[in-house]
Amino acid sequence: MYILVKQDVPDKFVPVITAHASLACFRKFEHNDDMQTWVNGIFKKVVCAVSETEFINAQKEEDHVVLTESALDNQEVCLAFVPREEYPKMFKFFKMWTPNNNL
Known about the structure:
By secondary structure, the chain is of the alpha+beta class. 32% of the residues lie in helices and 24% in strands. It contains 3 helices and 5 strands. The protein has helices at 14-29, 33-42, 52-58, and strands at residues 2-6, 46-50, 64-69, 75-81, 95-96. The longest helix has 16 residues, at 14-29.
């Protein structure tokens, strides 16, 4: 499961946002065949930090959920995508999220 977080989201919010994203994606797509394969075996998650442009472009892909953060004026901050065999090529270029200590 790819989880994309906007790179300007403060670090202190990211763990909770990504936890909610994983659960929201599962709940929305729990009957999807790829989701069932993932939840019953693979269960790998990749969290990436993306720019605003990358975020907008990724939203064009199918089978995802969008999360907002009330503490950040209900801004869209995260996308979680149904696990799948092959993701679009752009996903290979997203940077893994690492804390920047931008509290």
